[in-house]
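>> Question from a student workshop board

For tomorrow's exercise we were told to take the sequence and the ligand below, predict the bound structure, and bring the output to class. My setup keeps failing. Could a helper post the expected result so I can at least see what it should look like? The ligand is cytidine-5'-monophosphate.
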Amino acid sequence: MAIIHADGWVFARACAKINLTLDVLGRRADGYHELASVMQTVTLADTLAFRGLEDGRTEFFCDAPVLNGPENLVYRAVQAVRAATGCQRGVRIELQKQTPVQGGLGGGSSDGACVLLALNHLWHLHLEREQLLDLAASLGSDVPFFVVGGTALAEGRGERVGALPDLPGRWVILLKPAVAISTPAAFRALTPAGYSDGQATARLVEALRSGQMLLLDELHNALEERVCQMYPAVAESREALLKAGATLVQMSGSGPTLFGLFTSLEEATPVYQRLLQEGRQVWPARTVTHAEALGIFASKDE
Ligand code: C5P
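>> Workshop helper replied:
Here is what the output should look like for this input. Compare the format with yours to find the bug.
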């Protein structure tokens, strides 16, 4: 999350994520699902700009009109920091969206985490990592992951996050089918037949920790099969990604965005070009390490 100072503005990047694995272990009494997931930040990112205001106001502007309101996680993150610290400083935040909305890429969650980290840094609040993680969890299940970034294991409802050794770098092609899927709808559609004991996640965690050669041939997303059944556009896009030459394809989170992983840019480029020519919504990206994801915030706070 590189940060640059210019004319009183501070710029930060809020990276999107993909779920390399997403095991659903079962449904909990509180309505959430118990998860085990290896999550990974990628270079597709929103840009946030911060500037101090003389009075204690919070001003927020987003270039996507549908997101330009006080229910945005950016705004809610500011409120959460104020409530936790009593800080009354004013701030203007401008958010330029790149990551698709409701795409399964955690865009809004990443924006929220970015605000927590940035305000902690800019306002010299000295919030500890655990406090930041608690604030993040209060904003949403996916938000704590973005306080950690890189490659990480998420458990519980997604809010218990531990860093893993960085995934050896991969090129990523992201393809968003032209449907919007709400996260609750995707989870509701899952039946107990889709639950697992978390084996896919455990195997990937083990491989990352032991530094074995990663084959990454056992990706798994428990939500994918039902989402493909309910939304034919997702199944069709999945086929298109495979037909274009990707061999390792999976849906991210609750979808609908799909990703293909590649070890070389030479392999990834023709796949990207072909999908682009087909008029699809597609982004080239690569995986982002823990250090890259947090940038200056990590050097200050860790
Ligand atoms: O925590 P967050 O507000 O992002 O979750 C949105 C919705 O996604 C929840 O209300 C729930 O329906 C579903 N969800 C779930 N299990 C999780 C995470 C999210 O069922 N672990």
